Amino acid sequence: MTELRKTVETYWSAAQARDWAAFADTLSIDVLYDLPQTRERIRGRENFLTFNRDYPADWRLLRINRVVADPESAQVVTWVHVAVGLEEMYAITYFTGDADGRITTITDFWPEPYEPPTGREHLAERY
Amino acid sequence: MTELRKTVETYWSAAQARDWAAFADTLSIDVLYDLPQTRERIRGRENFLTFNRDYPADWRLLRINRVVADPESAQVVTWVHVAVGLEEMYAITYFTGDADGRITTITDFWPEPYEPPTGREHLAERY
User: What is the ipTM, given to two decimal places?
Assistant: First the structure.
């Protein structure tokens, strides 16, 4: 039984290498990919592979900032930084897995910068 | 030794109840609170308590959608839905803890809805 954490590490390295055979092997055939911010859902490995293959090739994984792995519930959350062209972005991604250590659901968040509301400058420093 | 997962559950229930004594008890005295989207950082329990006490009282925890707890690295990630007035929002929050099960760092993301780019309607359904 493969640990989901290992599968997720392969998911990111294979995506970065555009190694679609290795990438496909991390996924359950019925994988569900959700983007709550746009309310988009992609069903199944084939569609999700197409989605990733078609994604602009100037995408680059900069670093995996955090991995939180819950072996008991077969859940993993990553926080990764990527470059898309000259822009740096980050994604928070929830994964769940099956008994074979394959990914069954992926829930992806892409939080964007915003200006802080006024009235808390006395409590918060900027970095 | 309190498990960080339990502390985090208390953190959310105490925040919802505005029970600041119970809330304070979940936090290390040196707790760091980061908002990467605004690049704000609040240092220390007292400042973070003030920040929360001053936050509009029409805030309401709707549900804890997911909890991913990594006992080995003392990390927990939650995905919660809240109502702020009539608006529903969600937050992804990373916690780390100390040996006493108190929270040492909190990293909070508030992803906002956006319109999906065109060109993937054939792969993605909307929900």
Answer: 0.91
